[in-house]
Amino acid sequence: MAIVITENLTKVYGEGETAVTALDHVNVAVQAGEFVAVMGPSGCGKSTLLHLVGGLDLPTAGRVVLDGNDLAALSDDRLTVLRRREIGFIFQFFNLIPILTAAENASLPLLLDGAKPGEARAHAQKWLERLGLGDRLGSRPDQLSGGQQQRVAIARALVTEPALVLADEPTGNVDTRAGEEIAGLLRQAVTDWKQTVLMVTHDPRIAAYADRIVFLKDGRVVEQAQLSEQQPANG
Fold first, then answer.
1. Which of 161, 159, 160, 2 shows the shortest CA–CA distance to 67?
2. Is 50 within 8 Å of 44 (Cβ atoms)?
3. Rounded to whole angstroms, how far apart are CA atoms 157 and 155?
4. Which residue stretches of the chain have pLDDT < 50?
5. Are 119 and 107 a contacting pair, CB within 8 Å?
6. CB count in 10 Å sphere of residue 92
7. What is the pLDDT of residues 78-103, one digit of tens each?
8. CATH topology of domain 2-94+163-226
9. Smallest Cα–Cα separation from 229: which of 186, 181, 191, 194?
10. N or C of the chain: less Cβ packing under 10 Å?
11. Largest CA distance in the chain
12. Neighbours of 39 (CB within 10 A)
């Protein structure tokens, strides 16, 4: 089953002679339990694609269907709830709250959705332990390395067990070794924890962890490469 379908997805910034087409009739589908990487030169539309799929921006034309929901047909309130419950976001910069501990940062999406603090913390602790941070639950971001901070950000993205995880250059702000570890954790999230991941990266070594690579150029899909046999998630 496709978790994400984009149909002729188009995004144009500006008007008239100054208009820039960031995405040009992009058709992509991501299946449940699949890890898809998006690659291409700078300015090719990679991040724009993620922003549109995540409901952070509106398309000029075409549509995004996420887990059966046409994003354009949702009210602002419904879209906000869908983003909070069905999408986990991981960015290049960790966007952690400095005064909160790892456990508090990771539990935020659940607290915002009305979970009881004890339940939210227990769930956050489970994900932080899975990601190798069981001994750093009480650490603030400034007490963690870059790779550890990104692990907290991944736990925060996974804590709601969303339908889709969107990762925008998730290894772009850490060293090579930490980047490989983070890519491996995203691979594990798909293989072991039955998540679905759509990741933008400029690094071929990181893209190699995916099941499939979609190549963009000038806002269009120019090629797709299957790297491994995709194993659909159960249920």
1. 2
2. no
3. 5
4. 230-235
5. no
6. 18
7. 999 898 889 999 988 888 999 999 99
8. Rossmann fold (3.40.50)
9. 191
10. C
11. 56
12. 22
